[in-house]
Amino acid sequence: MHNDWERPTRCVGWDVASVLLHLAQTDEFATASVRGELEPLAYGLMGRREDQKVSVDDAAAAQVETDRAAGGPAIRQRWHDASRALCAALQTADPHARATWVTNRLSVQTLATTRLAECWIHTGDIASALGKVLEPTDRLQYIARLAWRTLPYAFERADMTTRLLGARYADAFGRTGWTTTLRSCSAHEAYLRAYRHAVDAASAVEFLLLDRLFPRSVYHALTTAEQALGELDPRSARAGVDDEASRRLGRLRAELEFLHLDEAMDDLPRLLERIQRDCAGVHGAIARRYFRETRVIEWSV
Fold it and tell me: How far apart are CA 126 and CA 10, in angstroms?
C-alpha cells in the first residue's frame, strides 16, 4: 500500500522508505569501494575522529534527506539495483583486498559481512513497522560470527591492557618499564608517533587507557564492544537503555571518555580493578541474555 512507505520505524525519524533508501545508498557506496573507485583513505571517508564536523549518523541522515523525495517505488527499484550491483562486485573481488569504508578500511570479506549485518538489521526495522514477523534462517550464522569474534576480542583487549597497566604501576614508574609495557601491548611505535617524546608514565597510561584512536586502548576496546552489542540488538528505547549489558558498558565507556588523566593517575590501581570488575559484569550480562544456561554434567561410576 502507498501509505506503508511512510510508516515510522524503530530508526527514530525515518519511515520505511527512508530506511530502504539508506540501504540503497550504502550498498552503492560499498560497490564503489569494492571496485576500487574510492580513494584508499586510512580513516575512511569521515576522516580522523577529531577532524570530523558531523557524526556518522548525521551524515547518513543528510544523505537520506537529499533523495527521500523520489518516492517509495523509485527507492525500492534503486535498492534492488544497488544490492544486485554489490553482489556482482563482491563475487569477482579479492576477499582479502582492502576497501575504504566510513571510518576506516576493511577487507572485502569483512565489508561483505557488515553489509549483510546492516541489511538484516534494517530488514527487521522495516518488518516491525509493517507488522511482519521474520523467521530466522541459517544465513544469520555470518552475523553471529561477526559479533562472536568482535565481543570476546574487545573484552579480552580491555582486560589484558588494564592488567598490564596494573602490573607496571605496582612494579615501578621507570621509563624502561613503561617502554616494555607499551611493547607488550604492541603500542610502542604508535605511542612515539602520537606523542613524539620519550616515554613517561602519565603519557603511557593516557595512551593505553584513554586514547580514542589507538585500537588497543581500553577506551577503544570498550567502544568496539558497545558497537558490536548494538549490532546484535539495534532496537533502542525512546529514553534510556533497556539492555543490562549495553547499559553497564555504556556507563563505563562514557566514564572513560570524560575522565581527566589527573583523575586516573590519582588512584590508578583502584580504577583498573574497577574496570576489570565492570567488564566481568558486562560479560555476565551478555551470557545471561544470549547464551542458554545448562546444568553441569555430573558423572558417576
Answer: 8
Alpha carbon distance 271, 208 (integer Å): 14
109 φ/ψ angles, rounded to the nearest 5 degrees:
-65, -45
DSSP code, position 218: H
C-alpha cell at 154: 574487545
54 SS3 class: coil
Q: Which of 95-99, 218-222, 241-245, 279-283 has the lowest mean pLDDT?
A: 241-245
Domain-wise residue ranges, the chain: 2-130, 140-290
Arch. (CATH architecture) of 2-130: Up-down Bundle (1.20)
Contact at 8 Å (CB) between 48 and 104?
no
pTM of the model: 0.55
**CA 13 – CA 297 distance, rounded (Å):** 50
Q: CA-CA distance, 19 to 61, in Å (whole number)?
A: 10
How many other CB atoms are there within 10 angstroms of residue 33's CB atom?
Answer: 26
Identify the three-state secondary structure at position 106: strand
Check if the beta carbon of residue 51 is closer than 8 Å to that of residue 107.
no
Contact 236, 280 (CB under 8 A): no
Cell 562514557 appears where? 254
Percent helix, strand and coil across the chain, each to the nearest 5: 70, 5, 30
**How many CA atoms within 13 Å lie on the side-chain side of 20?**
25
**Cell digits of residue 281:** 559484569
Residue owning grid cell 546444568: 295
Q: 214 falls in which pLDDT band (50, 70, 90)?
A: confident
CA angle 106, 107, 108 (to 5 degrees): 110
What is the length of the chain? Answer: 301
User: Which residues lie closer than 8 Å to 250 by C-beta, 6 or more apart?
Assistant: 226, 241
H-state helical runs in 185-217: 188-195, 201-210
